[in-house]
Amino acid sequence: MCQLLGMNCNTPTDIVFSFEGFRRRGGLTAEHADGWGIAFFEDAGCRLFLDYLPSSSSPVADLVRSYPIKSKNVISHIRKATQGVINLANTHPFQRELWGKYWIFAHNGNLTELAKLEPSRFQPVGNTDSEQAFCWLLDQLAQQFSVMPSRIELHQALSRIAAQLAQHGCCNFLLSNGETLWAHCSTALHYIVRQAPFTVAHLSDMDLTVDFSNETRPNDRVAVIATQPLTDNETWTAMQPGELLMFVDGEIQKT
Amino acid sequence: MCQLLGMNCNTPTDIVFSFEGFRRRGGLTAEHADGWGIAFFEDAGCRLFLDYLPSSSSPVADLVRSYPIKSKNVISHIRKATQGVINLANTHPFQRELWGKYWIFAHNGNLTELAKLEPSRFQPVGNTDSEQAFCWLLDQLAQQFSVMPSRIELHQALSRIAAQLAQHGCCNFLLSNGETLWAHCSTALHYIVRQAPFTVAHLSDMDLTVDFSNETRPNDRVAVIATQPLTDNETWTAMQPGELLMFVDGEIQKT
């Protein structure tokens, strides 16, 4: 099983604190050492950093720490290979373009009977179940909508698509188009929304503390989603199996 | 006008020497300071590093120097904005997936009357003429071939497509699917093929010398393509206006 990390904010924010704990799960505090990746949306653009080295020792991960990119939507993934060899083509997150928007997807789980999820327009480059599921998901969206629909219509469509994917196995995933971040839980996803009054947070994976009241402005709001809680002194909410949440501007949108 | 750099090899090779001179054109030895990017194919996978900071001072460019990624196909671009504001979405190279392969494209020039190059399946995310041309190019390929055709068929199709693009203005471009690298010249592209016996090369943009005989094996072959020659003691070949060359395993393929 892999580890997922997502961030959705109302103002561009760096993910250095959360990533510092998260990356240690790639080879130090957990065994997920089969590559990693992180995608930062910056307005319509997107930067995707991938490496097949463990995130705990990757030079690319060092860059992410030393060059704090500010973003409203971030998705990161640390891989423990279940299907597909360890190489760059099989490293999450995956990126495609649909309706003139970049879409980023990362998956934790194991899907089977993939012959029933044969994509057409979007084709996997590597040989993971995850990338095939992503391509099939985008195919479904492209078939249903010729231009990008409203957020609510997208959410309704993704709810149906995620439920179909989940019939094939464990399907925790994060998905974003740079405006909205969707989180789907099969077995394990937790989230926290940080907003004023900001407090002090302490990482679970290393002895590092940050006082968010020194790092933020009063109106800032940041949602962080992770496979397991990243801090040991805050209250994270466990998502329910089958639940699909839509985060916009750092908060859950009602549907 | 922007600056292009491409490399195509028969064995995975790092581009550190060429990139060290090339990056200086982004803000130091030339004025192309409106962002830059570099794409490395590694088998089917691809790593794309983008930054809107000048390449001469970018932390991401520092990473490319300190973490020498070995690749058989590399495309890099330094931007001097002509159309489209300076942001990540407008930063070359651009990436899309077609037929289960990643395609990378970078362009130097200025195209007009883009309404005649309206793409459908592939849509630009930013607002440059270059990304629109790339999307249109892929649309043409996707319409002509439902699965990836032979290299020769691709070359013939790209010859027609490049000629159509060139009717809209200056169209120097580099394109690769990780197996083949195409270079199209409208006004300025130069190349060199390095193979045994390897010699000493000296950069034009800084006082740096490398003795390739110490860095290579006898059977290595590396083609480097750049807007302007990167070294001042080797013989580069100027491409002709309208010429499309196809590089495979470090050499030009006859068509």
Automatic annotation (TrEMBL), chains A, B:
Annotated GO MF terms: transferase activity
Keyword list, A-Z: Glutamine amidotransferase, Transferase
Source superkingdom: Bacteria
Glutamine amidotransferase type-2 domain segment(s): 2-250
Keyword Transferase: yes
Pfam family, one: GATase_4
Transmembrane annotation, as ranges: none
UniProt-listed Gene3D superfamilies: Glutamine Phosphoribosylpyrophosphate, subunit 1, domain 1 (3.60.20.10)
Protein name: Class II glutamine amidotransferase
Organism: Deefgea piscis
